[in-house]
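Before relying on records like the one below, remember that each one covers exactly one chain. Contacts with other chains, cofactors or solvent are not represented anywhere in the record.
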Amino acid sequence: MQETKQKKTSLPLPPGSFGLPIIGETIQWFRDRNFIDKRYKKYGSIFKTSLFGRPTVYACGAEANRFLFTNENKYFVATWPKSTRILLGSYSLATTTGTFHTSRRKLIYQAFQPRALASYIPTIEHFTKKYLEKWEGMKTLTWYPELRKYTFDIASTIFVGTDGGSDTRLSVLFEDLSAGLFSIPNPLPWTSFGKALRGRNEMLKEIEKIVLRRQQESNLGEDALGLLLQAKDEDGNSLSLDELKDQIILLLFAGHETLTSALTSFCLLVAQHRDVLSRLQEEQAKLNFSEPLTLDSLKQMTYLEQVLKEVLRYISPVGGGFREVIQECEFKGYTIPKGWSIQYQIAKTHEDASIYNNPDRFDPDRFSLDKAENKQQSFGYIPFGGGLRECLGKEFARLEMKIFAAMLIRDYDWELLSNQDLNLTTIPTPKPRDGLQVNLHHRDK
């Protein structure tokens, strides 16, 4: 036992630099979208830095993902930067660990089981039709902010029971909260974090009013909020009011921020690859489905499924995830000390040429049945994370993406406007710098 411990501690730390005292390399991490690429090229697939006041190891690739995901609660527990932990809340599924997280995950899953997902389809179809008609009338639009309204309307209706949420105060408060999720946790009122903290506190008041009002109703309803109000754990306990409020904030973030990024990427990439758009349109014409769509009819859109998988590979809505090291361990010949953070890399994994043929090329056929590149290596395709903490709402995200894409492709065409900056900003999620400016029009069939 002593020999093993001695062997572990004698191994070197990963290569890299901690940067400046206290702040480390946090400023560079915020400002430089090639932060990871530069260090990956210099040091390889594992390197150290210091972010948010904490020594941090970056571990990139399928092997690293497997190591992290299979040692959850042994060597690692989930963590986030301090700003994110505070703003999502102490009861949030994202910030809890251990048995409490496991029990709450089972409880919240009730809002994402197949029967629940099927019940959300009419709401998603309603808002998709409404927004497509609105955009057709606009003809020229900046799509990203419009997609933020679209996804927030759906998320607030399904998760909070608030119709037209993008036009409410809740939406304004949520934008403030989102802007500070990954920030230096300085609570002064003029900082991003200070504004986000104020937004969170005001959101909690608004959500509490909604929850208390719903609890007085004789029929709690079959939307996600209704299901969560009725859900009970193995001991027959319901979610407390404080837990409900934190979970709703997380659901709004997951059902809005990352989905907006993914849908924007879909619209961008398909516009840039007209051959892909033609094949998508051919599939929709052949299937000839009309509303109401069903889970079964959506499953038959196999080429669309390939395209959406490739969108999530090519521009990952989430770049990676943080873990805290709770027991010193060793990986690839390096010591990873207890108390450090470690971040796995989704985007870097999806760029691995040992898994994906020509990873820099947008190629939906890599996900065809005969190729299935995503299945060549376990944990080589992880758009929703993996292991015990894989995104609980991944099937909801896939459902909304597929309905949106199917209804858009079937009836509309769009072209990118020239003279716009399509380079991606990546914090908190990827989006084109100029917001994706397009001409959209109804398609002649």
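The domain at 2-442 is CATH 1.10.630.10 (Cytochrome p450).
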